[in-house]
Amino acid sequence: MREHRQIVERWHQGSASILVTLVRVQGSSYRQPGARLVVCKDGTYEGSISGGCLEADLLRKAAWLTRDGAVVERYSTLFDETDDIPFGLGCGGVLDVLLESVETAECQALLRAVDAALSGHEHMVATWLPRGECGMMRAVFRADSELVFASEGLSSEHLSEARMKCLHSAETGFSEISIERLVPPQRLFVFGAGDDAKPLVTMASLLGWSVAVIDGRAQLARKNRFPETNAEVILAPSVAIQQITSRDAVVIMTHSYEQDRDYLASLLPLRPKYLGLLGSRQRSSLLIAEAAAELEWSVSECCQYVCAPIGLNIGGEGPEAIALAILAEAQAYCMGKRNESRRLSADHVERYLATGDSRHYQRNQCGLDTV
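User: That's the sequence. What structure does it adopt?
Assistant: Structure tokens below.
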């Protein structure tokens, strides 16, 4: 999400030239379809589609590749001495990237949709990738399926099919008709503007999240306490609570027992996607018990919706380590990845060695080395 902010910013500045989108991955890849970068007129770029290896080649070739219009370029990260594609990166996958000029109506429509999504308005984008003599075409819909842009040449049948895919496709991706869902950034509401909130707000901002800091204490609820972030600082907690939905992440960390209790009782019925409560087990237990009594809920029901003690158990101490633990847990909850471990076991290693081809990962050459 942060890269979308950077790309849109360069577009608004008038310095964007070529938009590059990762549209298809076969095998493994550092980034997934939908990742983007923009090549700028001054020779720099914002965003990424790999770990940094492909960007250098794209930076050199983007203008030449798009001289006749949008194009899909393929990069192989498999090692093969006979492969014509000059990237044996050792990542083990094949990547297709779409390059298009920012000046085209299709790209302008996409960037407007990205910008709108960053402002909280979800959009769906259908893209017909260029093939042979057929150039790229695109349609953009609002979340309610209202059409806001369509390339010349798209028939009513094309648009009807795209609209149906936008409305009913459980998964998005890039195929014959590529459907992409542009969603607003994850929102984080931090109740408490103390010093330990600062690294949490900074880290969440680095992820591209939309962050609001709420504190009823005027001496703490000041924008200049959170420099270099786009965090909104709210002095009226009741106003912030009215904005919270089931898609949001919320952290309670005022260090005031009475405020934490009142916020917890107000927030539990909203059932945010993530609700974390800072404090010791004993303090949190008291807060949950009192909130349960006020709401006439069972303690078990309250515990079901509260993460306390807050944060993943990753060790360390100090505000930065605590912020990292909180944000990692919130990210896992918001992405539906909690309690999922990717740690290899000996059985995994043995199975991958038996079924894989190690030549795909050996004798690596990084594209950055050729700059």
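Confidence is low (pLDDT under 50) at residues 363-371.
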